[in-house]
Amino acid sequence: MTQPQTPTAPAAASDEESLASSTNEASLARSVARSAEIEADLDVNPGRYRMLTGVRPTGNMHLGHFFGTMSSWATIQDRGVDTWILVADYQVITDRDAVGPIRERVLSLVADTLAVGVDPKRSTIFTHSAVPALNQLMLPFLSLVTESELHRNPTVKAELEATDGRAMSGLLLTYPVHQAADILFCQANLVPVGKDQLPHLEQARLIAQRFDKRYGRADRKRPVFRRPEALLGEATLLLGLDGEKMSKSRGNTIELRMTADETAKALRKAKTDSDRVITYDPVGRPEVSNLLLLASLCGAGAPEEIAERIGDGGAGRLKAVTTEAVNEFFAPVRARRSELLANEDHLLSVLRAGNEKANAVADETLDAVRTAMHMHY
Ligand code: TRP
Predict the structure, then answer these.
(1) Model pTM score
(2) Ligand 1 centroid distance, CA of 54 (Å)
(3) DSSP-derived pairing of the beta strands 229-232 and 190-193
């Protein structure tokens, strides 16, 4: 009896998968389930993973960043995962005309990163602009995506809308491809992301897949690129002090670098409501609940408990309690941060060591890419 022939080529279906699929419910559920599996595996097999995350140096880091992502970097590193942190300096110019005080911001970000516990001996901190081979991957990668695919990316669309009528730059349209290079150049297989960044990760996987399909070795047993996966954090969504989305440009943040007094001053201006009895009710009382959440994240107990303790103490008491919790929690981080900032040579040497390591890996990857493309002379 003849067996049905097993196709030798990889199934076409996954390659035909469109970017839009990452936004549908089923795909989201798959990502959530897979992320939970990885989360469980991290402690068993930390050596299987290389984690990459990126931050744009567009301003000062604030508590939204801290509780959203930064606090997890050192935790992941301490669990034994090879941790890479990219200071995405080229990504600054996706949606603006000037780089701003970029050098200060980059150094400040390096200080923040070290202050929250990232150890430069175990982890790699580097910048886009210092790693030419990473950026060169953008060329072959651009040939692997279509214009309509780029235009459909929901995150790019949202970011364009946030620029208030600015024309879409070529870099904004294609930055998901650059971001794919960020991830793929160092063979990272784990990227901590919020749900809004899932389309980017999907794009990176598609690029890896398409590259290997187009240029991969005939046996396809040793793909040039690893397939990155998402580590979906629990979304701790802190609002800004005005109750809107927390963002640098809105000026509604508490920054990591603020002093205790500046923190108190910012919190005194926070929006609340006129009900003197403090209750935790995120839907009905978002501003009050946001301050309770912030105090809770800083170790003051569960939000409901804090509310009960304050009782009819009103907004003034709530702000005082929150200020104390924030200042106490961040005191050691802030102290480390200012110590680090006073030593620019140290920050630069951390960055240079990271860049050197990133360059070594990037050169190797680009070499494999050029070999696969028969461009090795
Ligand atoms: N786009 C990310 C942000 O704005 C930063 C970033 C750049 C990134 N490259 C990355 C994140 C690669 C994850 C992976 O925060």
Answers:
(1) 0.90
(2) 4
(3) parallel
Task: Give yes or no for a contact between 134 and 185, defined as CB atoms under 8 angstroms apart.
Answer: yes
Q: Which tokens in the block code for residue 91?
A: 């990504």
* Block residue for tokens 């979906």: 232
Q: Show the tokens assigned to 237.
A: 């969504």
Residue 8, classified by CB atoms within 10 Å of its CB into exposed (0-12), middle (13-18) or buried (19+), is exposed
Residue with tokens 């067996």: 3
Q: Show the domains of the chain with their CATH numbers.
A: 46-237+344-373 (3.40.50.620), 248-342 (1.10.240.10)
Residue with tokens 């780029």: 150
- Between the CA of 256 and the centroid of ligand 1 the distance, in Å, is 20
The CA distance from 200 to 188, in Å, is 14
Candidate of 50, 51, 56 to mutate for ligand 1, largest count of ligand atoms within 8 Å of Cβ: 56
- For residue range 154-201, list pLDDT tens digits in order: 989 988 988 888 999 999 999 999 999 999 999 999 999 888 889 999
